[in-house]
Amino acid sequence: AEYYFAFPGRVSIRKFDHYPNYSFYLFDDVLITAMYPTVVAKHQVPTLELAPESPYWTFFEDDRKDLLMTKELSKSKLTRIRNNK
Fold first, then answer.
1. 8-40 as b/e, with b when 16 or more CB fall inside 10 Å?
2. C-alpha–C-alpha distance, residues 38 and 34, integer Å
């Protein structure tokens, strides 16, 4: 939510309810993805930097297409998330 308010009009925040928990950031020809643990025990999880030549690029591109079909979270919802309410 902080990115949404820090970079108005440049950040889209959406949610979907399937595997795995991660976020990704697309910058021109570089994709950064951060995984999140889905268990109570905290573990080190990978953060990856991918280029279009990566075999994983297609995986994230497919997920991105699915994600863009979902409804974008509203400003009021993001404000509540930001304020932990």
1. eeeeeeeeeeeeeeeeeeeeeeebebebeeeee
2. 13
Q: How many CA atoms lie within 13 Å of 2's alpha carbon, on the beta-carbon side?
A: 1
Terminal Cα distance for the chain, rounded:
13
Token readout for 82 is 């930001």
Q: pLDDT of 41-85, one tens digit each?
A: 677 778 889 999 998 888 888 888 888 888 888 999 889 888 886
The number of CA neighbours under 13 Å toward the Cβ of 7 is: 6
